[in-house]
Amino acid sequence: MKKQQKIIIIASLLVAVLLVGFTTYQMRTSQGPIVRTSGAALIGGNFELLNHDGKTITNKDFHGKYMLIYFGYTFCPDVCPTELQVMTGALELLGDKAKNIQPVFVSVDPERDTPAVMKDYVSNFYPGMIGLTGSAEQISKVAKLYRVYYSKAAEKDAPADEYAMDHSSIVYLMGPDGSFVKHFSYGTDSEKLAKGITTAIKG
Ligand code: NI
Q1: DSSP one-letter code for 53
Q2: CB distance 169 to 83 below 8 Å
Q3: What is the separation, in whole angstroms, between the first and last Cα of the chain?
Q4: What predicted TM-score, i.e. pTM, was given to this entire model?
Q5: Do 83 and 173 belong together in one domain?
Q6: Which residues of the chain have a pLDDT value below 70?
Q7: Which of 50, 67, 129, 152 has its CA 20 to 30 A from that of 100?
Q8: 189/138 same-domain check
Q9: Would you say 58 and 44 are in contact if contact means Cβ atoms under 8 Å apart?
Q10: How many angstroms is it from 78 CA to the middle of ligand 1?
């Protein structure tokens, strides 16, 4: 082994040790008794949007049932259809238990996702799935409440209506009172999602 290679390996090991040490230190300090936050308080809240029939709807209209909510856009080439298919698969696996769970798809692209476009799109997925859209301000507000990031990504010189939306891809399970129950990250398959929901709603 060349001397230079040795130096590089040793240097890499040192960085790794430092990183582990730093992470441990961070964990210790963050476990202190001073700051205690509950995820329940951080996700969700009051919103007013348009359903896929063009009617104004608020978060309270969803109370009484669990809500499985996901944010994306209908022009999404793969991430959104994949995730909505995963949600659909999970609800199918849940069978009768799914009666108590309302699947909801919220657009982060209100410019193109009109109620009519949303209605047509959600009909491809689990029966009864509700599509929500609204004004740019309404969408911005609800996305903030759910800690959803989104941003328009247009190519140079592309026509005005041809663009992609970068967006975070997280499924949230909200309780019948509208409070946050659990989140599922992108890549969770239908079986895991169904199991996670079952465990969560058992309490
Ligand atoms: Ni998407």
Answers
A1: T
A2: yes
A3: 58
A4: 0.80
A5: yes
A6: 1-41, 203
A7: 50
A8: yes
A9: no
A10: 7
> pLDDT of 165-175, one tens digit each?
999 999 999 99
Q: Ligand 1 centroid vs 47 CA: distance in angstroms?
A: 21
The 8-class DSSP code of residue 43 comes to: S
Count of structural domains, the chain: 2
Alpha helices in the chain (DSSP H): 3-30, 39-42, 79-94, 115-122, 136-145, 190-202
CB 172 within 8 A of CB 69: yes
Half-sphere exposure (Cβ direction) of 62: Cα atoms closer than 13 Å: 30
pLDDT in tens, 134-163: 999 999 999 999 999 999 999 999 998 899
Amino acid type, 201: I
Structural domain boundaries enclosing 15: 1-36
Q: How far is the CA of 72 from the centre of ligand 1 (A)?
A: 5
Measured N-to-C along each axis, helices 190-202 and 79-94 cross at an angle, to the nearest 10 degrees, of: 50
**How many residues are there in the chain?**
203
